[in-house]
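SEQUENCE-TO-STRUCTURE ENTRY
===========================

Backbone structure tokens: a row of integers, each naming the local backbone shape at its residue.

Task: work out the structure tokens from the sequence, keeping to the layout shown below.
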Amino acid sequence: MESRISELQKRVEAALAGWLPESNILPGRLHEAMRYSALDGGKRIRPVLTYATGTALGVPLDQLDGPACAVELIHVYSLVHDDLPAMDDDDLRRGKPTCHKAYDDATAILVGDALQALAFQILATDPHMVDDPSARLRMVEQLARASGSRGMVGGQAIDLGSAGKQLDIAELEGMHVHKTGALIRAAVLMGANSRPDVDPHTLDGLDRFAKCIGLAFQIRDDILDVEGDTQTLGKTQGADQALGKATYPAIIGLESSKQQARELVDRALEGIAGLDERADLLRWIARFIVERIN
């Protein structure tokens, strides 16, 4: 499965490189910074989930490149903005200086804005995506909702507002469901909607899978902030603790956090139990999420 993951990571990298403007096109510095932020780094979990979901339903890979790129561009834009001094003020991302460190704050803001716009341009214009206007519209709605105030951006707002405050476990879960889980859910649902005739029962199971692994992913991130090291993580270890952020280990303890993540993966796998062997990559990803070291 690792070789398959590697193939899909390379595939979305190539597709992203094709969509991102070259640095010799005006405004060159902005385009250079966009490519710096979006290429050559990251686990590409979200686009791989889009590919894996579509593949599980028999969708050709070329129909999945567009939604895979779109969800990754939204993710990268969020990282560029989250790293800014006004947000998390991080110096390191994906093993290299953050965008605002490599360029400047204003350029980083514009990079995030441009990457977000490009994501929706791809969904609107990619000629290889599913030839069904209603399916495309559902993808646009899913990605927009996952990205906005009721999704990722809302989760970041809650996160910023909770720094130094005591949250209970329900409040923490709600924050994570928005900040991280919403975009992971969109990645899966966009892959599913690349097959317009997907049956409602299968779609419900995939939605359950996505919700569970989205929360498990963030719990694992919280754990790695405690147990990981900066070189392996590719970002500053202990940053959440330093900022006084609410995390699962801080609230329920490290071992209980690990158990919670494992239970979520078990529930995720139940959601796709009815799918055949074409969904084995989804099953592998679910297990990887709670075992990863970065």
Remarks:
- The chain has a mean pLDDT of 92.
- The first strand starts at residue 92 and ends at 93.
- Residues 12 and 65 are 7 Å apart (CA to CA).
